[in-house]
Amino acid sequence: MRRRLILLALALAAASVAVTAVPSLASRGDRIPDELRVPEGHRLVLSALGRGVQIYDCSTAGAWALREPAAAIFRGDKTVALHYAGPTWQSVKDGSKVVARPEPERRVVVPAPHPERDIPWLRLETIGTGPGLFGQVDFIQRLRTRGGVAPTGACQPGASTAVSYTATYNFWMPANA
Asked: Residue 164: exposed, middle, or buried by beta-carbon count in 10 A (0-12, 13-18, 19+)?
């Protein structure tokens, strides 16, 4: 069931209508909250649109809890990466991965401008794995989110749901790398 939900979410993301390139917030001059800024000495290596779902499970207490994301990361109309549990981002070109560090103190969360409908903006510290596009990424920003918030109200324990979302993902590596 879980695998089918993820595959369905990725298929929907890939088939979505007219995906366009999203310039990075850094290049557009949009306001990035100070807490989400990446430390000096880093350079932006990829800014891309994420389109997919946030998958929620209903707990035994009858409340929705995030299980995992399932999204395709686009540059223009081309899928460049997949985003899934971990959270992990994996390049479709070279297979390199980057995983967010699990420690809560390694992530910064800022409410989206419309938190009632949009998931928070984030800055995550990461662990790269191997050579390639994501191998040396130290930070990921999730910005300009739309959708993805868990349903409100009680739910039936054991139920799952997938909530559509989009976001701009910025990937940063050390400037000297």
From this structure: middle
Residue type, position 90, single letter: Q
- Residue 28 CA to residue 142 CA, distance in Å, equals 15
Q: By the 8 A CB rule, do 84 and 53 touch?
A: no
User: pTM to 2 decimals?
Assistant: 0.84
For 108, list phi and psi in degrees, rounded to 5: -120, 130
List, for residues 42-69, the tens digit of each pLDDT value: 999 999 999 999 999 999 999 999 999 9
DSSP 121-159: EEEEEEEEESSSTTTT--EEEEEEEEEBPPPPS---TT-
CA 11 – CA 34 distance, rounded (Å): 35
146-167 residue pLDDT tens? 999 999 988 999 999 999 999 9
